[in-house]
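Exercise 7. Given the components listed, write out the predicted structure of the assembled complex. Treat all entries as one system.
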Amino acid sequence: MTAFQSTLGEEEGIAEELAENQRAISIAEFFEKNKHMLGFDSGARGLVTAVKEAVDNALDAAEESGILPDIYVEIEESGDYYKLIVEDNGPGLTKDSLPKVFGKLLYGSRFHKREQSRGQQGIGISAAVLYSQLTSGKPAKITSRTQGSNEAQYFELIIDTDENEPEISVDRTTTWDRPHGTRIELEMEGNMRARQQLHDYIKHTAVVNPHARLELREPQAHFKFERATDQLPEETEEIRPHPHGVELGTVIKMLSATDSHSVSGFLQEEFTRVGKKTAESVIDEFRDRHYGREMAWTPPGPHESADVAAAVTEATVNKGATATEAFATAIADAVADSDRVAHNELVAIVDSSADAVEDEHGTTFGDTVRENAAEAAWAELAGLVGDDEDEDPADETDADPDDHSRLVTDLYELADGATSTRKDDEVVHAFAVRLAGKFEDSEDTRHRFTHKTLVEFVDRAAELTEEYDDVAFGDTARENVVDAIWSVMVTVPDDPPRVRDLSGDRDATSDLVDGMRATDIMAPPTRCLSPISDDLIEAGLKKEFEADFYAAATRDAEVSGGDPFIVEAGIAYGGDLEAEGSANVMRFANRVPLVYQRGACATTDVVKSIGWRNYGLDQPGGSGVPNGPVVIMIHVASTNVPFTSESKDAVANVPEIEDEIELAIREAARELKSYLNKRRSMQKRRKKQNVLGKILPEMATKVAEVTGRAEPDIDDAIARIMNNVLVERRLEENGDGQTVEVVVENHSSTNESLAVTDIVSAEPSNLSDGATVVEMDGEWFVKWDADVSSGDEAVLTYEVSTDAAFDIDVDGVEAEKLTVTDTETNQ
Ligand SMILES: Nc1ncnc2c1ncn2[C@@H]1O[C@H](COP(=O)(O)OP(=O)(O)OP(=O)(O)O)[C@@H](O)[C@H]1O
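Answer.
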C-alpha cells in the first residue's frame, strides 16, 4: 500500500495533504526532465540538435542585420565529452540580453513576430545550454562582440533550473578577432553516431542558403561550403495576422487588447489585407450569422388582392387626403419597382417616401405614422393578411393545392427552380404551401431568420411532404431549396456590437470569426516570407545531385491559423541518383533541413498519399514513398510553422498546409511525368530505329540483287518511316569548286526549328540567305537557323573548293528524331 493509499478512508485532511504536495514547476525544470521534447533524447541526437539550434540562430541573426552569414562549426573530443563551438559573424548580443538568451528558456525575439524566421519559440539555444550543463556539468562559454564595439564580452553561465534564470560565473571583457559576432562553446556528453545526419544538415543548409558560408570541422571530416551568391534573401517584414484561419481564442484575446471601438476599426487595425470595404463585407457576413437575413418577397401583381397603396392609405390618419395619397402611391410605386422587398428595405422605402412627401406637402410624418405605414404595407407583402379563410394556421400538414397565398406562389417558384425537373408540380406546390405556413406562423413577423432556422423550415416542410404525399424529398433537394431562398434573403442593416460588448460575448465573436473566414480576402502579403524560389531550388538540386531531370514549383501564399505560408517542391530524377530503394525525401521548414522524425511529418504523409504511378514512377502497392532514382524536396515557409513538437523536426498535419504540399509536389511531378513519357517514347523510337537500321540495308542489298538496280538510299527511307527530320548534304562539282547543299527535310508531324553548324576546312562563299560564317583557327563555321514546317524542306547552299572537308552539327531536335547523312564528305 502506498503512503497515499494509506491515507484514503480517513475522512479528513486528504485534500489538504494532497494540496501540500502541489507546487509550481519551472519551465526549465520541466524541460530538464523532458529533454526529448526539445530534440535532446540521446547523445548522438543531442550533438546534432545543438549544432542545429546554434547554426539556425546564427543564420537568423546575420540575415536580420543584412550581413552575409559566415559560420564556423567545430566538434572536438574532449576527454569523455564532446566540445561544440559555433561562431558567427552576426550582430552580436548586448551585455544585458546575452545571459538571458542563453540562460533562460522561453526568452527570444521571434515568438511574437509574424515574420518568417528559423527560430520561433525562444527555447532552442538555452535548451542546448541546459543539455550541456546536465550532461557535462560545465558552464556554457560565450563570447560576443557587437558591431562598432572595441572589445568583446565573455560570459560563463549555467541555467538555474528552479528559477529559469541565468547563473553567471564569469563576466568580463575580452578581445576577439572577429569584428562582430557570437561564439558559443558547449561541452556535452555525446557521440558521433549521427554523423550522417549532421553532415546532411550542414550540406542541405548550404543548398537552401546559397548566400551563407559554412564550415564544419569534426574529428573525422572537414568541409567548407563557400557561398554561391552575394545576394541575401529578400528582407522579410513583420505583418499582422490574416483574417483567414485565426482561431476564436486569438480573436477574443485581440478584442480585449485592441484600442479600436468599432468592429470595422478593429478589423482594419489588427489584421492584414483588411480595408474599409473588406471590413464591411466581413461585417455583412457577421450580420447574416448573428442577426439572420430577412426574406424578400416579390411585390404584389395587379391581379392580386394584396394592395400596398390601399393598406398604407388606411393606416395613415390625419395627414390630409392629398399628402396621404402621395405617401401611399410613393410607397406602392417603390415596392412595385423592386424585384423583391425585405422588411428593412420596406422601412427604408417608407422613410424616404415620407421625407419626400414632407418636403413637398409641408406635412410632418412622424415615427408612429411611418411605423404604421410600414407595418400595413408589410402585411400585404408578406401575406400576413391571409386570403385563405379556411386555412387552419395550427395545422401544418394542411397542403390544400387550391391554396394560393402569395407566399406560396413565391416559394413555389423558388423551390421549382431549385429542385429536379422530375419532381411533380403538385408535390412542389404542396411543399411550398407547407413552407409558406412556416413563414406565416413565425413569431418574427419581419421574416428575419438565421440560416439554421431556414434549414429547419425547409426540413420540416420536406418531411411533411414525404410523409403525406409519399414522395422523396432528399438532402440535395432540401439544400438546393435552402440555397435558393437564402440567396434572395437580404442582409440586415443592424449595427454590429461595439468591440467592448463583443469581447465578452463568445457566441457573437464566433459569428465574427466565421464571417472572417467566409469573406473573400486577398491573400496575405508575402514580404513576411522568404521562399527559396523555384529557380534556386532547381539550382540547389543541380548543385547537390547529378540527375537527368530537375523540376521545381513555388505555390502562391496561403493562410493557416492567421499565418501566411508558402510551399515549394522540387524533384530530381535519373542520372547518378540511387536507382535502388525508395526515393530520397528532403524536408525543409523556413530554410532549415528537417533531420529527424521523417515518419511523423506531414510532408512525408503527403508524399506517401500521392499515386506516383500516375506520374510514371514505381510505387509498390500503389501507395507509399515511390521507388527509383528520385529526390523529392519540400520546403514549407511560414511565419509560424506548426511543428509536431518543440524540437521542430516534423511539420504537423494541418489540412491547409497538406493541401498546398500536395499541389506543389503534383506541379513538379507533372513535369516529371511529361519528361518520363517523352523519354519512354524516345526509347521506343530508338528501338524501332535500331531494328530498321539492321533490316533495311539487308533488304536494300536483296532488292538490288533481284532487280539489278543500284541500292536505294536507306537513310532517306529510315527518315521517312520514322517520321524523322533528315539533314542531308549534296555536293555538285561546279567549275573549279563545288556547290554544297545542306537539305533539311521535315518528315515529322510537328514544325521544327534547327540550328545547323557546318564546319568547313576551306573558306566558303556565296552563302544562301540567313546563313553566317565565322572563321576560327583555319576552320569556317557556317551557321544557319532553319525553321521547317511539318512536311516541308529547307536548303542551305554555299560554294567551296573541291578539297574542302565538312563536319556537321545539328541542334534543336532530339537525337532520336534526327537522321543526319553526312557521308558525302570529302574526308
Ligand atoms: N548567434 C546569435 N546572434 C544574435 N542573436 C541571437 C543569437 N542566438 C540567439 N539570438 C537571440 O536569442 C533569441 C533566443 O534564441 P533561441 O535559440 O533560444 O530561440 P529562437 O531562435 O528565438 O527560437 P527557437 O526556440 O524556435 O529556436 C533569439 O530569438 C535571438 O533574438
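Discussion: The longest helix spans residues 655-707. The pocket of adenosine-5'-triphosphate is lined by residues 53, 57-58, 61, 88, 90, 93, 101, 108-110, 119-126, 182 (CB under 6 Å).
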